[in-house]
Write a structure and sequence with these properties.
The chain has about 350 residues and is α/β, with parallel strands linked by helices. The protein is built from 15 helices and nine strands. The protein has a domain of about 240 residues: Alpha-Beta Barrel (TIM Barrel). The strands form two sheets. Strands 1-4-5-6-7-8-9 form a seven-stranded parallel β-sheet. Strand 8, helix 14 and strand 9 form a beta-alpha-beta unit. It is globular, with a radius of gyration of 19 Å.
Amino acid sequence: MRLLDACARKPVDATPVWLMRQAGRYLPEYRAIREKMSFVEMCRRPDVAAEVTLQPLRRFELDAAIVFADILLPLEPMGIGFHFSKDDGPVIERPIRRARDLEGVHSIDAASDLQYVMDTIKLVRHELDATIPLIGFSGAPFTLASYIVEGGHSRNYAHVKKMMYEDPVTFGRLMSVISEVVVDYLKAQIAAGAQVVQLFDSWVGWLGPFDYELLVLPHVRYVIDHVKGLGAPVIYFGNGASAMLDLVGKAGADVYGVDWRIELDRAWDQLGDVAVQGNLDPITLLGPPKAIEERVADVVRRAGGRPGHIFNLGHGLIPQVPPDNVKYLVDAVHRLSAAPI
């Protein structure tokens, strides 16, 4: 499998490619299902979630599937209520902003509390071509904490940062509970059949290096240390963290996802002897084929034929992307990176 070989930094015949949010709103077949049920219902129905996971694999020559789920799903069994608003934005029903708010928040047994995710993984593995690995995932501790403390999306992460500064003990307790949940969740996904797992730290780029190293990195390391060695490579994606890759690289992951705010070769030099994933600006896919080709070629050139490159976007696909452009991108990656015969 190209992707697993790349994770292990073995030579491949062409660069493997998958795309964050590859199963989603840019596909008309996804929207047809979404019109009939809520987003959360789609996640909680293994037959539907498996179908959505497989949809992009039927259209494009992708080198991996990623299970259709949401990073907030563990919150409900943790005792933290949430729902999605009409525009699909998450809303935390009782944000945690002080020590007493942690009462009733607890770890979970992911295999049973989130059995529907495990059932989805099993269904996908049964249907998926044996040459295509399945990626499981979770939100990283700080990203989940940000949602929990902010109450949803945020423009400046003021509430979670205020907690970090004013009450680091409570912040640390929250991060510890989340870390245990993430470890259990990823272990359960691997046991169910996920062959790779990705840790999404979507909002970590809002932190300065001092706060990241002191208050967040130890929890990331804890998660990765407890998941590595279970037979599934671990990808750590720190969105917006290109200015502190020297610290991100201490997380202990097998593969590091890189956003588009730094050149791939410069990022790789800072990360060192690891596999690297990235890093096309997702908005490129709104451009014409010529623009896509030029920028794919630049990423491939910067990878320099080194073993261990996985092509991906620097963040997730957006709903406005034409599916034909996704096909062009995937085909271009394989064509431009193919080893000479």
